[in-house]
Design a protein that fits this description.
Bound molecules: S-adenosylmethionine
Helix content: 25-40%
Number of helices: 10
Largest sheet: 8 strands, mixed
Distance between the termini: 63 Å
Number of strands: 13
Low-confidence stretches: 1-7
Shape: globular
Structural class: alpha/beta
Strand content: 15-25%
Radius of gyration: 19 Å
């Protein structure tokens, strides 16, 4: 039906797991298997031309490859061996923007099933500390499997409510980077988009937004925090710009970073620093990303 047709036009994005391989090696492997590499995409429309076994490097993210919609890699060697991660491009943005240095201490607040955690580990080259929390036991055990397959070793998983993690604990005294991808309505997922609005939708959004704001405020309490990425797969401003707006009002020591000027879809006014993603403008699921950074206090002599 109509829903299926819409699903068809989101390409298959694949993130190369640089903990186990390189983009060049994956491209060579696929070429030997009869795939056709067409180089790096130049425009959004290049993605619409993909068919059969042809593929591209993504326009914005160099570790992401793009294939036609529904290309199935679940039984492919590269997937089973953890060399590639099946992850929508939009969901690769949070770790890409947080960009924690090799050796840093990082918190992934709501981490399961862990695709963003494994991306963070790849950026950190498995060096440093990656504290990952999730409330859901089952999702956390899926996550352990996924991280094992991806060769992640710098993580410390905890089945814990992030809101109850003590920012003053000496464990986190060096944590400067936090990724917060909390539970959301999921309204950006293309397959869910046409679901009839539930009667309780408004209340549900309000309670999700209240939770998201509490999480974001909590993230800013860690004493050494410098950068926090906030993301959702929701299209509702209640869960996106409104959460960021309330948080900034309550935490004047933080400001938004202007993300990737060449990205075509921005946060709703006045939050142009933030990014949105959707099928029409970015060929991805619906998504929102904001990067908050601590304002540095004026140095002596500059006051
Ligand atoms: N970042 C994950 C990834 O990329 O694979 C997806 C995270 S999903 C959007 C949100 C997660 O938050 C769920 O796994 C849920 O169990 C978890 N969660 C919900 N409330 C939480 C809380 N208070 N503390 C920690 N995790 C929580």
């Amino acid at each position: 039906g109509f829903k299926e047709m819409q699903g068809d036009v989101i390409p298959r994005f694949v993130r190369v797991n640089t903990l186990k391989t390189t983009v060049e090696d994956v491209i060579d492997y696929l070429k030997r298997e009869g795939f056709t590499y067409q180089g790096t995409a130049c425009r959004l429309e290049d993605l619409d031309q993909l068919s059969g076994k042809s593929f591209l490097c993504d326009l914005h993210l160099k570790d992401v490859l793009v294939f036609r919609a529904k290309m199935d890699f679940h039984n492919h060697f590269l997937y089973k061996a953890g060399h590639i991660i099946l992850q929508d491009k939009a969901s690769c943005l949070p770790a890409f923007f947080l960009n924690p240095p090799v050796g840093s201490h990082v918190i992934d607040a709501c981490a399961a099933p862990g695709n963003k955690t494994s991306h963070l580990a790849a950026i950190m080259k498995n060096k440093g500390k990656l504290f990952a929390f999730d409330l859901d036991t089952k999702r956390l055990s899926t996550m352990s499997t996924l991280l094992l397959r991806a060769g992640v070793t710098c993580q410390q998983l905890a089945n814990q409510d992030f809101l109850k993690v003590d920012p003053q604990s000496s464990e986190y005294k060096e944590a400067k980077y936090i990724l917060l991808d909390p539970s959301c309505s999921g309204s950006g997922m293309v397959c869910l988009r046409d679901e009839a609005l539930e009667p309780q939708e408004d209340k549900r959004l309000q309670s999700l937004a209240a939770f998201q704001l509490r999480c974001l405020n909590h993230a800013l309490q860690f004493p050494q925090v410098q950068r926090v990425v906030y993301s959702t797969c929701s299209v509702h401003s209640e869960e996106n710009e409104n959460v960021v707006s309330a948080c900034l009002q309550q935490n004047p020591g933080f400001r938004l970073v202007h993300l990737l000027p060449s990205w075509p879809e921005r946060g709703h006014d006045p939050f142009k620093q933030c990014l949105r993603a959707n099928q029409a403008k970015t060929r991805t699921h619906g998504f929102f990303v904001a990067l908050l950074e601590k304002c540095s206090p004026p140095r002596e002599g500059e006051k």
